[in-house]
Design a protein that fits this description.
alpha+beta, single chain, four-stranded antiparallel β-sheet, 32 strands
Length: about 550
């Protein structure tokens, strides 16, 4: 058996000795750590800007650090190696002490590592107390503005590359060196010093050239997509917005010239123009270039009140423009039918009867418009028929309105604006709907199918002013109907849509007849006439009694001689 090498023995001894020393040191540290264990309070020897927080709970430390710090009035000066400086108040950057974060940092001393690390930290604090700076809060954006402005005053303003457009090309010039936009070093210097209550803080400000673009970023900046001519609906009508021609460059060509730009040379790039799909002239030609539908009805021009109402309501919907998807409301457009608005009293339907009402005749305007909308193939969103049939439109094509209760509404379901125009006068109203001519030749048919008819019954009313047996027609009845309306749309002569527009139910109104019920007056009763008595003659005295006939039919009788 060979003897162990003396050198190996010596090395093993040293390793063992070091291990024993480290173990002893760990035991000693642990012992002192247990003695100095902070428990639920901040470790002994921890201070913040000279404020001793030893033995305080985290909340107690937070309270101690929250006392008025005067940071808003504190004047801070930033300076550079050149001796240049700028000063500002703490309030300018909303500077304040973050007591909560500072107390949390102090509380974490001796708790943030493993057991041995924490023990070593606590023992070290026993011999050398640790002082923290405040953790401060401020508005980073406001501080950056101050630092950057300070840097510009020293280094000048950095300007990015310059694009100059001319004709069919764009020149790209290298930018100008100046204060760097990267302020991270200056802000880091500020952060490391502001918590120590230092009034003067050194910062480093750098000057350099702006970013040189690569071919793709240059392409992205120069590129502009074409914009079609468009319009917007205003109170004055339709405002047309001209088209915008787009542009781009050849990115591959730009890539070959970037090196020249880096060397300070100006490069020239050819512009490629991008035409929009819709120009202003094309848009003008498309807007309101086609009468989608037109419908007319007649009214008695001699009835001045009704004529006034029809013509006034027609004028209120004239020249109304609707954008695609917009909803037209008759009541909102025409407004309340009041005397103050110029409307007059004329017959209206109320509870199945015709009575006088302000605005009578306005429903003829809404019904004429409804018929025009049907033939224009626009979407109906709200419509009600009259309680009884009206004479000015076919059954099923009327639309009754009453401000605040019944409205007629429809949607511009086309892809372009539409415009309503009206003419009214001389007993005729015409409503036209103008829009953009569809690609296909469109024809619209309206079919009003009567599916039920109710003939008027007779309602007899006793009239004591008429003789018995006589009759007088007070009001002529109206036939009741149920009508189903269908809209059929053809494009280039082929049916593409058959749409049920709903049922219109019109009441039957009975004919009212007065029946004579007058009782005849009784004949007057005359008193009986007495029979005359003849005077006596000299020859003889005659006595006479009245006869039965004379009694029943009294009349003078001759004297008997």
């Amino acid at each position: 058996m060979k003897n162990e090498n003396p050198k190996s023995k010596k090395r093993n001894f040293r390793i063992t000795a070091v291990a024993v020393i480290l173990l002893f040191f760990a035991v000693i540290c642990t012992f002192f750590a247990v003695l100095a264990s902070p428990g639920k309070t901040i470790a002994k020897g921890v201070t913040v800007c000279g404020i001793d927080l030893s033995g305080m709970t985290e909340l107690e430390a937070q309270a101690a650090l929250s006392k008025d710090d005067g940071l808003s009035e504190r004047e801070i000066t930033l300076y550079t190696m050149l001796g240049k400086e700028v000063s500002f108040k703490g309030a300018d950057i909303l500077l304040s002490r973050d007591a909560e974060k500072t107390a949390k940092a102090a509380f974490s001393v001796g708790r943030s590592g493993n057991m041995l690390e924490n023990a070593f930290t606590l023992v070290k604090l026993h011999f050398k107390p640790r002082n923290f700076d405040y953790i401060c809060a401020y508005d980073t954006e406001k501080l950056s503005e101050i630092i950057y402005s300070f840097g510009v005053s020293l280094n000048g303003e950095q300007k990015k590359y310059i694009l100059e457009y001319g004709g069919d090309s764009v020149s790209v010039k290298r930018g100008t060196a100046g204060q760097s936009k990267d302020l991270s070093k200056a802000i880091a210097s500020f952060n490391s010093a502001v918590g120590s209550d230092a009034d003067r803080i050194f910062i480093q400000l750098e000057r350099d050239f702006p970013h040189i673009p690569d071919a793709q970023s240059l392409y992205d900046e120069i590129y502009m997509s074409p914009v079609d001519a468009s319009y917007k609906i205003t109170e004055a009508g339709v405002e047309l917005i001209p088209e915008v021609i787009g542009r781009q460059i050849d990115a591959i060509e730009a890539g070959t010239q970037i090196e020249k730009l880096k060397n300070g040379e100006t490069i020239e790039l050819k512009l490629i123009w991008l035409e929009p799909e819709m120009t202003l002239e094309e848009l003008k030609h498309q807007l309101f270039n086609h009468v989608l539908s037109q419908y007319s009805t007649s009214y008695p021009a001699s009835d001045k009140s009704r004529s006034t109402n029809v013509e006034l309501a027609a004028a209120k919907i004239d020249e109304v423009i609707l954008a695609p998807g917009a909803i037209f409301s008759f009541n909102e457009t025409v407004g309340a039918r009041t005397k103050a608005a110029g409307f007059r009293e004329a017959p209206v339907f109320v509870n199945g009867e015709s009575v006088q009402g302000t605005g009578g005749g306005v429903c003829q305007v809404s019904s004429t418009l409804y018929s025009a909308v049907l033939y224009a193939d626009l979407k109906i969103t709200e419509r009600r028929n009259h309680s009884m049939t009206v004479a000015y439109v076919p059954k099923g094509q009327d639309a009754t309105v009453s401000y605040g209760t019944l409205d007629f509404k429809f949607e511009n379901s086309t892809a372009y604006p539409i415009k309503i125009t009206t003419t009214a006068g001389g007993g005729k109203i015409t409503v036209s709907i103008h829009g953009t001519k569809p690609a296909a030749e469109k024809t619209v048919k309206i079919v009003n199918n009567i599916i039920e008819t109710k003939e008027p019954t007779v309602e007899e009313i006793q009239d004591k002013t008429l003789p018995v047996g006589s009759k007088k027609v007070l009001s002529k009845g109206k036939t009741g109907y149920t009508v189903e309306t269908t809209r059929i749309v053809l494009e280039n002569g082929k049916e593409v849509k058959s749409e049920k527009m709903g049922r219109s139910v019109y009441k039957m109104v009975p004919t009212k007849v007065a029946i004579g019920a007058k009782v005849p007056a009784p004949l007057p009763t005359l008193p009986p006439t007495p029979t005359p008595v003849p005077e006596p003659t000299p020859e003889a005295e005659v006595t006479s009694e009245p006869t039965t006939e004379a009694t029943q039919n009294p009349r003078p009788t001759p004297n008997v001689g």
